[in-house]
Amino acid sequence: MAKEYQSAWAQSISVKDQIKIMGRLMRYAKPYKKQFIGAIIGAAGLAAMNIALPFVLQEYMDKYLAKQSATTAIILSIATLYAGGTILKALSQFVQSFAFQMGSERGLEDARRQLFGKLETLGMRYFDQTPAGSIVSRVTNDTSTMADFWNVWLTILVGMFSLVSSFVVMLKWAPKIALMVLAFTPVLAFVVWYYNHYSSKVYRRMREKLSELNTKLNESIEGISIIQQFRQEKRISDEFEATNDDYLRSRKAMIRTNSLLLGSMINLLYSLALVVVLAAFGLMSMHSFVEAGMVYAFTTYVANFFNPMTNMMDNLTFLQDGVVAGSRMFRILDNQEYAPAQNEGASATVTQGKIEFRHVSFAYDGVHRILNDISFVANPGETVALVGHTGSGKSSIINVLMRFYEFGEGQILIDDVDIREYPMAELRRKLGLVLQDSFMFYGDVASNIRLFNEDITDEQVEAAAKFVQADNFIEKLDGKYHARVIEGGSQFSSGERQLISFARTVVTEPKMLVLDEATANIDTETENLIQEGLRRLRAGRTTIAIAHRLSTIKDANLILVLDAGRIVERGTHEELLAQHGRYYDMYELQAGQETLADAQE
Question: Is the domain of 503 the same as that of 390?
C-alpha cells in the first residue's frame, strides 16, 4: 500500500495551494452574486426560525403547561404561531437552497464551457501526451464535482448562522454552561484540520484512479474491433480489473477516513456535550429551581450547535473532492501548450498559392529533431510529392505546414510571405486537407460534406460529391444525401468514407491542397474511380501529397525522397528513376509486389 501513494497525484495539497484553488473556483460564482445573496438571506431566515421555534415551546412549557394555565385560546395561538414559524422555516430553506443551487449550476456551466474552450486552443502536442479518457474525465467528472464543492459553502453558511445564533442564546441564558459547550470546539478544530490534511492525499489518489479507469474504458471502446479480432479480451479485462481494483482500494481508504473522522466523531462530541449540559443543569437543580422548558430549549440549541457541524464535516468530503478536481481542471486551464499562434495583426491574403520551405527544422519535443534543413518550392498549380519509409518525416512536413505544430528553425512561406502573417481562418479556407483516416460525425452525408457550414448549399454539396464521383454510391443510399451517419461513419467502407472526405475538401474550393496518403486505405477499384477526380481537383491548385503508392505520383512536378527527416533525393519521376537511388529501389519493389499480386489473382 505504501507504494500506491508515492505518485505525484497522491501527495497532499498544501493549505496555501488549497486556498488558492478554492479562490479560483469561487470566481465562477461572482457573476451570479444575486443568487448567492438570496441564498444568504434564506440561510439567515432559517437560522432565525431555528432560534425562535424552540423559544416558543420553552415559553409555552414554562409559563402555561408548568402552571396549568393554558386555555384553548392560548393553545390555538401557540399552535398557530409555531405552524407559521415552521412554514417560514420551510420557505427560508427553499429560498436558500434554490437560489444557491441555481447560482452554482450556472457557475458550473461557465467552468465547463471555459474548460472546453481551452481544449480547443491547445496544440496537438498536448493531445499527443494526454490520454483522451483523462481529458473526458476532467471535462465531465471534475466539473460536476464543482456543484458539490459549492454546496459545501452553502452548508457552511447555514451551519455558521445556526452555530453562532445558538451559542449567543445559550450564552445569554447560561453563560457557564455555554462555555462548557464551547470547550469542545478545539477538539473539533483539530479533527477538521487532520481530516483536511490527510484526506487530500486520499482524494487525489482516488481521482487519479478514476481518470485511469475512464482512459481504459475509452481505449477499450474505441479499439473493440482490434481487441476482438486478436482475441485480447482476457488481457484487456485483466487490465481493467486491476485498475478497477486500484480505484476500489482508493475508495476504501476514503470511506475509512470519512467513517472515522466525520459523522461518528461529531456525534461523539455532541453526546459528550449533552452529558455535560444535563449534568450541569442537574447540579444547578440541587441549589435552585431549573425550568423544564429552558432545559428542553437549551438541549435543542446544543443540537443546533453540533448538528450543522455534522453536516459540515460530512460535506468536507466534497470540499476535498472539489479542491482535487479543481487542481486537475486548472492544470488544463494553466497549460501553455497552445496551438501555434499567428503574428499579431496578421492580415495577409493567399492569392497564388505558392508554398516554400526554407531550411525548416522541427522537433516534437523541442530536442530530438524530426525534420532537418527542409527546403523546397511548390509553385502555383504544381504538385510536390513526399515519399519515404515510415518515420522519414513526411507527416511532420504536413503538420508544420498546417500549423498543427510550431516549427523551430527556418521559414515557411506562402506567396513569398511568412506563414505567420496569415490569419488562421485564411489558412484554413485556402488549405484543403485530406487525411489517410477520414473521420465522420453524427448527422447525415450532406452535413459531413459541408461540415455543418450552412453557407454551403445543397447544390454545392451535390456538385462536390459528383466531382469526386462519390455520387455513385450516395445516390443508392436510403435518403441519399440525407442518409444518417452513425459514429465514425462505420456503415461505410473506408473507400466510401474517403470519397466523402474528398468531397468535403472540394466543396470549400481551397487554393492549396494537402493529401496525407489519401488513397492508402482505398481498394484498387475505388482508387481508379477517384484518380481522375484527383487530377481534376489538383488542376490549378498547389498540391503537397504524401504518396503511399508511387504509381499515383508519376505526374508530380517534384518528388522529394525523405529519410530520417532529410531530403536525400529530389526530381521528377523519370529523373529519380534514372538516378538508380532510393526512389528507384522503392519503385521497383512496389512494381514487383503489384506484379506478383496480379499474377496471384
Answer: yes
Q: Which of 215, 196, 201 is nearest to 130 (CA)?
A: 215
Closest CA to 496 of 469, 515, 514: 469
Per the CB < 8 A criterion, the answer to whether 429 and 510 are in contact is: yes
Q: Which residue from 30, 47, 299 is spatially nearest to 174, judged by alpha carbons?
A: 299
Name the strand (E) or helix (H) holding 167.
helix 143-173
What pLDDT digit, counting tens, does each position of 41-58 carry?
988 888 888 888 887 887
Q: What is the CATH number of the domain that holds 481?
A: 3.40.50.300
Cβ atoms 302, 296 nearer than 8 A: no
Report the CATH number that the domain containing residue 54 is assigned in CATH: 1.20.1560.10
Q: For residue 455, give the C-alpha cell.
A: 453557407
pLDDT digit string, tens, across residues 164-219: 888 888 888 888 888 888 888 888 778 777 776 677 677 777 877 887 887 788 77
CB 50 within 8 A of CB 166: yes
Does residue 124 sit in the same domain as residue 267? yes
What distance in Å separates the CA atoms of residue 5 and residue 195, rounded to the nearest whole number? 17
> Structure pTM?
0.62
User: Is residue 39 within 8 Å of 100, Cβ to Cβ?
Assistant: yes
Asked if 530 and 469 touch (Cβ cutoff 8 Å), the reply is yes
- 544 contacts: CB under 8 Å, gap ≥ 6: 355, 378, 383, 384, 386, 397, 398, 401, 512, 513, 514, 515
Handedness of CA 358, 363, 366, 367 (dihedral sign): negative
Mean pLDDT lowest among 251-255, 460-464, 525-529, 564-568:
525-529
End-to-end CA distance of the chain: 61
% of the chain surpassing 70 pLDDT: 91
